[in-house]
Amino acid sequence: MATDSATQELPRRRTGRFISWVERHSISRIVLIGAFLYLLVSITVSAIEFIFHPAGKYLVLSDKGSAVSSFRDILYFNLTTVLTIGYGDFHPASYGRALSIIEAFVGVGLFSVFVAVITVKALLPPRDAIVFSKYAYYCTEPEKFLIVFVNTTKRNIGNVQISSYFKLGGDWLVKPSSTSPFITRSVQTFYVEPITNERLIAALREGDCLRVGIAGGLGFSNFSTSIQYSADNILVMPNRNKLIEFFEPLWEPDFKDALFKQMFHYQPKQMLTLKSFVEGVRKSGTISD
Known about the structure:
- The protein is of the alpha+beta class and 289 residues long.
- Helices cover 37% and strands 26% of the residues.
- The N and C termini lie far apart (64 Å).
């Protein structure tokens, strides 16, 4: 009888640690780590061979058969061994042969891992491909939630799907995801969940939140990202006209510009959070502009 292939056993630790490590480190740091490991192996084996030399156990010989006693020459020999080059000017002897075989295996293994890591890094999209504003917004005129995000890469993101889920009164409101052919490099002000003022005021409670997920294609890879906004991080405003007016001309936004950062995390002093807005309406019984 066929059985479900899904496992029911919990793992000892969370998966994806390798990918997470690769995401966190730059290519230059990965290259430095790889070079350090090659040097560490070469220096360790060279130290062993150099220590045995005064005892009369010559582990590295030149092409003329004489013992190699210089640490610099021994290190050179081991570097060419771990890199699997082998020019033939030096060769191992006695127990040095076993060390060289082990060293060559380690070198091949390091090279394979290094190529795999660089390949994964090259195919992975940047972690901050999509950056969200600190705040989501509830617009009282269209009675919809609004999210603000920017594509920080130098290309459009294709085949985009945007999904949103709002937890209201303890229950998740789920709707089909929205599909877009691409996301440009400019800032996006995107309406998601439509919920009436009356429904929010009647049902909002502690723990309710808005979750937004974005998935798309970037180069040769697919990526996804998500964010969650609590009722204290959702601000209430009439509509998105102010944001559209600022962001629409900015095809290539300057992320270092102070005004851009202020507008991206738009929060005028008089703007209420969703929690404060609902509590105020419940006390007064009316919706104020």
